[in-house]
Amino acid sequence: MSPRPISRRRALVFGGAGVAALAVGTAGWITTAGSTSAGGPGAAGEPLARPPELTARDGRLQVELVAAAGARLAGQDTRALGFNGSSPGPTLRVRPGDELAVRLTNRLDQPTNLHTHGLRVSPEGNGDNPFVRIDPGASFDYRILVPADHPPGTHWYHPHHHGAVADQLFGGLAGALLVDGGRALPVDDDRLLLVTDTTLATDGTVAPVGPPERMFGREGRLVLVNGQYRPVVPAAPGRAQRWRLVNGCTSRVLAVRLEGHTLQQIAQDGTFLPSPAPRQQLVLAPGNRADVVVQPDRAGRFTLIADPYDRGSGMGGAPASTGPVPLATLVVDGPAAVAPALPATLPAEPPPASATATRSTSFRMGMGGMRGGRGDAMPMSFTVDGRAYDPDRDDQIVAAGTVEEWTVTNTGPLAHPFHLHVWPFTVVAASDGRPPLGVPQDVVLVPPGGWVRLRIPFTTHTGRSVYHCHILDHEDAGMMATITVR
Ligand SMILES: [Cu+2]
């Protein structure tokens, strides 16, 4: 356990109507790496922290994760949720061929479980199984076998118990999951920037969320990076660093840019692009990851910003994000250096050449008295193909070994991010004309009234899992379906 911090009190007001003034205790605190930093949300401008790292040894990573309220978040002691008292939880680092053994203990007041988002692993049994239910007080032993040919990349983990996913992620339950190995890049630093959002009440509890917010998809008023409020990322002119950006927000789309800089994107959702791609802005749906290389060429302070993103306002519910949100500050200082150039080509995976079957599915919103995740009335229904999620119903049955082309349509006025577990897909085309990335990814935004076309190899694992909207309020309300590959 971390030593208890010595708190001083600091008052901080987060702007916006109805936002509670948050009394923020900031303190010096000890990271597991042994370094001390003065943390604090109130204290914007503290150095970016690295969540505790747990690294596989001799082919195995055995960890215990305890999900409980009382995490240290944004530099203060809160009633937010965390893994092992921390939000985000520890970063889990494995290599291809490793076994990831997680004992998850539930000290919440509701059932939970674990999803290894992005890993291409078995969804069966003690694997990445979304049907597992861990009741309060119980533990479950996950045993996840990372295939020897698994690509290295940036992934993450979070609970996936239907009906409680949004509340638990918004509460703070998320962590990074990195597959190491592969080609070393010429960078001086390799940093995780896991973005989450939440809203804290004055007493440090996570603020309750009403039906209108759940209908649109809740966006927290506090946007955090590695659990910190507007941290500082130190850099030297000329030196390159790799940032692993993870959108761990419940519903918020992050349209990210770095003042005065171009982000060189090298990977999406844990797979390399064919070559570094310059981006003035990167749009990350909830669940998406992007690895970028940042190489400042001059001293100064530059803000990493999430710009407003219109998810669709046809429902009369305006997006909660009304202005640009500062996420972090890049502070460039010190003597200039010259970093070696990035490689011109990266080890991208070629897309499947062709599909052997086609399939269509649609995200739908409709009028109707559906029940929300916590049982309260929702004015809208959230379905896949007109049916609310039923874990006992087989919605899609796919022949193992095939490559399918899916058309995912969205009949409604809000954008919905499509996420398929375990089997990543390559986007072939989208109705809004976005140029496809051409490499496997696992979350893609389906535009309002539009569609995306995906090519999905079902060639790795068999088993039963789910696909759903990654606006987790929508998933909890029923916008999820089962898939069986056999
Ligand atoms: Cu949705």
What keyword list fits this structure?
binds copper (II) ion, Immunoglobulin-like, 486 residues, globular, 3 helices, 42% strand, disordered N terminus, mainly beta, 5-stranded mixed beta sheet
Give an overview of the whole structure.
With 486 residues, the protein is mostly beta strands. The protein folds into 3 domains: 8-179, Cupredoxins -  blue copper proteins (Immunoglobulin-like), CATH 2.60.40; 189-332, Sandwich (Immunoglobulin-like); 357-485, Cupredoxins -  blue copper proteins (Immunoglobulin-like, Sandwich), CATH 2.60.40. 4% of the residues lie in helices and 42% in strands. The strands form 8 sheets. It has a 6-stranded mixed β-sheet with strand order 16-15-18-23-20-21, with helices on one face. Strands 4-9-14-13-11 form a 5-stranded mixed β-sheet. Strands 17-25-24-19-22 form a 5-stranded mixed β-sheet, with no helix packed on it. A hairpin with a 5-residue loop joins strand 2 (21-30) and strand 3 (36-39). The longest helix is centred in the middle third of the chain and has 7 residues, at 165-171. It is globular. The protein starts with 7 loop residues before the first strand and ends with a strand. The site of copper (II) ion (CU) has 5 residues, from loops.
